[in-house]
Known about the structure:
This protein is of the alpha+beta class and 270 residues long. The protein has helices at residues 8-25, 103-110, 114-131, 136-140, 144-158, 178-228, 231-247, and strands spanning 26-29, 33-39, 44-45, 54-57, 63-68, 72-81, 87-98, 164-175. A hairpin with a 4-residue loop joins β2 and β3 (44-45). It is elongated, with a radius of gyration of 46 Å. The chain starts with 7 loop residues before the first helix and ends in a 23-residue tail after the last helix.
Amino acid sequence: MEKFPKIAFPFIIIGVVLVILLSKSAVTIGPGEGGVMFERLGDGIDVERTYGEGFHIIMPWNSMIVRRVRQQSISDEMNVLSVNGLEVKVNGTIWYEPEFANLGKLIKTKGQDYERELLDPAINAAARSVVGRYTPEQLYSSKRDVIEQEILDEVTKLLEGQFLTVKRVLVEDVKLPATIKDAIERKLKQEQESLEYEFRLVTADKEAQKQIIEAEGKAESNRILSASLTDKILQDKGIDATIKLAESPNSKVIVIGSGDSGLPIILGDQ
Protein backbone atom coordinates (compact mmCIF):
# COMPACT_ATOMS: atom_id res chain seq x y z
CA MET A 1 0.00 0.00 0.00
CA GLU A 2 1.31 3.36 -1.06
CA LYS A 3 1.94 5.76 1.78
CA PHE A 4 0.11 9.11 1.89
CA PRO A 5 2.53 11.88 0.83
CA LYS A 6 3.79 13.96 3.70
CA ILE A 7 3.48 17.10 1.63
CA ALA A 8 -0.31 16.73 1.64
CA PHE A 9 -0.65 17.12 5.42
CA PRO A 10 -0.22 20.92 5.45
CA PHE A 11 -2.93 21.29 2.80
CA ILE A 12 -5.29 19.10 4.79
CA ILE A 13 -4.72 21.16 7.91
CA ILE A 14 -5.23 24.39 5.97
CA GLY A 15 -8.44 23.00 4.50
CA VAL A 16 -9.78 22.03 7.91
CA VAL A 17 -8.95 25.47 9.29
CA LEU A 18 -10.68 27.13 6.34
CA VAL A 19 -13.81 25.03 6.87
CA ILE A 20 -13.87 25.95 10.56
CA LEU A 21 -13.36 29.63 9.80
CA LEU A 22 -16.05 29.58 7.10
CA SER A 23 -18.53 27.90 9.45
CA LYS A 24 -17.89 30.62 12.02
CA SER A 25 -18.07 33.39 9.43
CA ALA A 26 -21.34 32.39 7.75
CA VAL A 27 -24.51 33.66 9.43
CA THR A 28 -28.10 33.27 8.25
CA ILE A 29 -30.76 35.62 9.62
CA GLY A 30 -34.26 34.26 9.25
CA PRO A 31 -37.59 35.93 8.33
CA GLY A 32 -38.75 38.54 10.82
CA GLU A 33 -35.34 38.66 12.52
CA GLY A 34 -32.55 41.19 12.83
CA GLY A 35 -28.89 40.80 13.68
CA VAL A 36 -26.42 42.84 15.71
CA MET A 37 -22.68 42.37 15.43
CA PHE A 38 -20.61 41.71 18.54
CA GLU A 39 -17.00 42.66 17.82
CA ARG A 40 -14.66 40.82 20.21
CA LEU A 41 -11.63 42.80 19.13
CA GLY A 42 -13.49 46.08 18.88
CA ASP A 43 -16.00 48.00 21.02
CA GLY A 44 -18.41 45.12 21.59
CA ILE A 45 -21.94 45.67 20.25
CA ASP A 46 -22.06 47.58 16.98
CA VAL A 47 -24.92 50.05 17.61
CA GLU A 48 -24.71 51.67 14.16
CA ARG A 49 -25.96 48.80 12.02
CA THR A 50 -28.70 46.20 12.20
CA TYR A 51 -28.40 43.29 9.76
CA GLY A 52 -31.52 42.18 7.92
CA GLU A 53 -32.76 38.80 6.71
CA GLY A 54 -30.49 36.62 4.59
CA PHE A 55 -26.94 35.24 4.42
CA HIS A 56 -24.03 37.28 5.83
CA ILE A 57 -20.26 36.78 6.08
CA ILE A 58 -18.55 38.15 9.19
CA MET A 59 -15.08 37.95 10.66
CA PRO A 60 -14.65 34.59 12.45
CA TRP A 61 -13.65 36.25 15.71
CA ASN A 62 -16.91 38.23 15.75
CA SER A 63 -20.40 36.88 16.48
CA MET A 64 -23.92 37.81 15.41
CA ILE A 65 -26.71 38.27 17.96
CA VAL A 66 -30.00 37.45 16.23
CA ARG A 67 -33.34 38.54 17.70
CA ARG A 68 -36.90 38.71 16.41
CA VAL A 69 -37.82 42.22 15.27
CA ARG A 70 -41.37 41.65 14.01
CA GLN A 71 -44.41 42.27 16.22
CA GLN A 72 -44.67 39.72 19.01
CA SER A 73 -46.63 39.27 22.22
CA ILE A 74 -46.31 38.15 25.81
CA SER A 75 -49.05 37.29 28.29
CA ASP A 76 -48.95 37.72 32.03
CA GLU A 77 -51.12 37.63 35.16
CA MET A 78 -50.66 40.55 37.54
CA ASN A 79 -51.86 41.02 41.10
CA VAL A 80 -52.97 44.63 41.53
CA LEU A 81 -55.07 46.67 43.94
CA SER A 82 -58.30 48.47 43.06
CA VAL A 83 -59.10 51.98 44.27
CA ASN A 84 -60.62 50.63 47.51
CA GLY A 85 -57.65 48.36 48.25
CA LEU A 86 -59.15 45.08 47.02
CA GLU A 87 -56.65 42.71 45.39
CA VAL A 88 -57.60 41.62 41.88
CA LYS A 89 -55.85 39.52 39.26
CA VAL A 90 -55.56 40.91 35.77
CA ASN A 91 -54.72 38.66 32.81
CA GLY A 92 -53.34 40.62 29.89
CA THR A 93 -51.50 40.31 26.60
CA ILE A 94 -49.10 42.93 25.25
CA TRP A 95 -48.05 43.29 21.61
CA TYR A 96 -44.64 44.90 21.21
CA GLU A 97 -41.92 45.38 18.64
CA PRO A 98 -38.21 46.27 18.96
CA GLU A 99 -37.08 49.20 16.83
CA PHE A 100 -35.16 47.56 13.99
CA ALA A 101 -32.73 50.43 13.40
CA ASN A 102 -31.94 50.68 17.12
CA LEU A 103 -31.70 46.97 17.95
CA GLY A 104 -27.99 47.35 18.78
CA LYS A 105 -28.65 50.21 21.19
CA LEU A 106 -31.47 48.22 22.82
CA ILE A 107 -29.28 45.15 23.40
CA LYS A 108 -26.27 47.22 24.48
CA THR A 109 -28.26 49.17 27.12
CA LYS A 110 -30.75 46.50 28.28
CA GLY A 111 -29.13 43.19 27.34
CA GLN A 112 -30.43 40.39 25.18
CA ASP A 113 -33.21 39.62 27.67
CA TYR A 114 -34.66 43.08 27.31
CA GLU A 115 -38.28 41.86 27.71
CA ARG A 116 -37.60 40.86 31.30
CA GLU A 117 -35.36 43.83 32.01
CA LEU A 118 -37.47 46.53 30.39
CA LEU A 119 -40.94 45.44 29.28
CA ASP A 120 -42.14 43.49 32.32
CA PRO A 121 -41.44 46.25 34.90
CA ALA A 122 -43.07 48.90 32.70
CA ILE A 123 -46.23 46.85 32.18
CA ASN A 124 -46.58 45.99 35.86
CA ALA A 125 -46.09 49.62 36.90
CA ALA A 126 -48.64 50.84 34.35
CA ALA A 127 -51.20 48.20 35.31
CA ARG A 128 -50.93 49.02 39.01
CA SER A 129 -51.25 52.74 38.31
CA VAL A 130 -54.30 52.40 36.07
CA VAL A 131 -56.20 49.66 37.90
CA GLY A 132 -55.74 51.57 41.16
CA ARG A 133 -58.07 54.27 39.81
CA TYR A 134 -61.12 52.02 39.49
CA THR A 135 -63.52 50.07 41.68
CA PRO A 136 -63.91 46.29 41.29
CA GLU A 137 -67.32 46.86 39.69
CA GLN A 138 -65.83 49.14 37.02
CA LEU A 139 -63.02 46.68 36.37
CA TYR A 140 -65.50 43.82 36.02
CA SER A 141 -68.00 45.48 33.73
CA SER A 142 -67.93 48.71 31.78
CA LYS A 143 -64.37 50.04 31.93
CA ARG A 144 -62.40 47.33 30.09
CA ASP A 145 -61.70 49.29 26.89
CA VAL A 146 -60.81 52.45 28.80
CA ILE A 147 -58.41 50.52 31.06
CA GLU A 148 -56.65 48.95 28.07
CA GLN A 149 -56.06 52.33 26.46
CA GLU A 150 -54.86 53.91 29.71
CA ILE A 151 -52.39 51.08 30.34
CA LEU A 152 -51.09 51.47 26.77
CA ASP A 153 -50.65 55.22 27.31
CA GLU A 154 -48.80 54.65 30.59
CA VAL A 155 -46.48 52.00 29.10
CA THR A 156 -45.75 54.24 26.12
CA LYS A 157 -44.65 57.04 28.45
CA LEU A 158 -42.47 54.70 30.54
CA LEU A 159 -40.75 53.24 27.46
CA GLU A 160 -40.18 56.53 25.68
CA GLY A 161 -36.67 56.60 24.28
CA GLN A 162 -36.00 52.93 25.18
CA PHE A 163 -36.02 51.59 21.56
CA LEU A 164 -39.03 49.33 22.25
CA THR A 165 -42.57 50.07 21.05
CA VAL A 166 -45.75 48.65 22.58
CA LYS A 167 -48.46 48.36 19.94
CA ARG A 168 -51.48 47.21 21.93
CA VAL A 169 -52.60 46.08 25.37
CA LEU A 170 -55.44 43.58 25.78
CA VAL A 171 -57.03 42.93 29.18
CA GLU A 172 -58.38 39.42 28.75
CA ASP A 173 -59.78 38.76 32.23
CA VAL A 174 -60.22 40.41 35.60
CA LYS A 175 -60.49 37.92 38.46
CA LEU A 176 -62.22 39.11 41.62
CA PRO A 177 -62.82 37.25 44.89
CA ALA A 178 -65.92 35.04 44.55
CA THR A 179 -67.96 37.00 47.12
CA ILE A 180 -67.27 40.32 45.40
CA LYS A 181 -68.01 38.89 41.96
CA ASP A 182 -71.35 37.42 43.13
CA ALA A 183 -72.34 40.71 44.76
CA ILE A 184 -71.55 42.64 41.57
CA GLU A 185 -73.52 40.21 39.41
CA ARG A 186 -76.54 40.47 41.74
CA LYS A 187 -76.37 44.25 41.63
CA LEU A 188 -76.11 44.30 37.85
CA LYS A 189 -79.11 41.96 37.60
CA GLN A 190 -81.16 44.17 39.92
CA GLU A 191 -80.23 47.25 37.92
CA GLN A 192 -81.31 45.51 34.71
CA GLU A 193 -84.63 44.49 36.22
CA SER A 194 -85.15 48.04 37.49
CA LEU A 195 -84.51 49.45 34.03
CA GLU A 196 -86.98 47.00 32.50
CA TYR A 197 -89.62 47.95 35.10
CA GLU A 198 -89.11 51.66 34.44
CA PHE A 199 -89.45 51.00 30.72
CA ARG A 200 -92.76 49.22 31.26
CA LEU A 201 -94.02 52.11 33.41
CA VAL A 202 -93.06 54.67 30.78
CA THR A 203 -94.73 52.59 28.06
CA ALA A 204 -97.92 52.20 30.10
CA ASP A 205 -98.00 55.93 30.86
CA LYS A 206 -97.61 56.79 27.18
CA GLU A 207 -100.43 54.39 26.28
CA ALA A 208 -102.69 55.95 28.91
CA GLN A 209 -101.89 59.43 27.62
CA LYS A 210 -102.73 58.26 24.11
CA GLN A 211 -106.11 56.90 25.18
CA ILE A 212 -106.91 60.11 27.08
CA ILE A 213 -106.07 62.21 24.03
CA GLU A 214 -108.20 59.98 21.79
CA ALA A 215 -111.13 60.11 24.24
CA GLU A 216 -110.89 63.89 24.52
CA GLY A 217 -110.83 64.13 20.75
CA LYS A 218 -113.94 61.99 20.39
CA ALA A 219 -115.76 63.95 23.09
CA GLU A 220 -114.93 67.24 21.38
CA SER A 221 -116.03 65.83 18.04
CA ASN A 222 -119.35 64.69 19.51
CA ARG A 223 -119.86 68.07 21.17
CA ILE A 224 -119.32 69.89 17.89
CA LEU A 225 -121.61 67.47 16.06
CA SER A 226 -124.39 67.78 18.64
CA ALA A 227 -124.22 71.56 18.54
CA SER A 228 -124.57 71.53 14.74
CA LEU A 229 -127.56 69.11 14.56
CA THR A 230 -130.76 71.21 14.57
CA ASP A 231 -134.29 69.73 14.46
CA LYS A 232 -134.61 70.67 10.79
CA ILE A 233 -131.38 68.80 9.89
CA LEU A 234 -132.54 65.72 11.83
CA GLN A 235 -135.90 65.72 10.03
CA ASP A 236 -134.21 65.96 6.63
CA LYS A 237 -131.88 63.06 7.43
CA GLY A 238 -134.85 61.00 8.67
CA ILE A 239 -136.78 61.64 5.48
CA ASP A 240 -133.76 60.62 3.36
CA ALA A 241 -133.42 57.37 5.29
CA THR A 242 -137.16 56.61 4.94
CA ILE A 243 -137.01 57.13 1.19
CA LYS A 244 -134.04 54.75 0.86
CA LEU A 245 -135.90 52.07 2.85
CA ALA A 246 -139.03 52.49 0.74
CA GLU A 247 -137.03 52.08 -2.47
CA SER A 248 -135.40 48.84 -1.31
CA PRO A 249 -136.87 45.77 -3.15
CA ASN A 250 -136.36 43.57 -0.10
CA SER A 251 -138.39 45.71 2.28
CA LYS A 252 -142.12 46.07 2.91
CA VAL A 253 -142.78 49.35 4.65
CA ILE A 254 -146.09 50.44 6.17
CA VAL A 255 -146.28 54.14 7.05
CA ILE A 256 -148.95 55.24 9.48
CA GLY A 257 -149.32 58.87 10.53
CA SER A 258 -146.28 60.53 11.90
CA GLY A 259 -144.12 60.65 15.01
CA ASP A 260 -143.63 63.47 17.47
CA SER A 261 -140.90 64.93 15.29
CA GLY A 262 -143.06 64.87 12.16
CA LEU A 263 -141.28 61.82 10.71
CA PRO A 264 -143.16 58.75 9.42
CA ILE A 265 -143.46 55.70 11.67
CA ILE A 266 -142.06 52.45 10.19
CA LEU A 267 -143.98 49.37 11.42
CA GLY A 268 -142.91 46.50 9.22
CA ASP A 269 -139.73 45.24 7.54
CA GLN A 270 -139.08 41.80 6.07
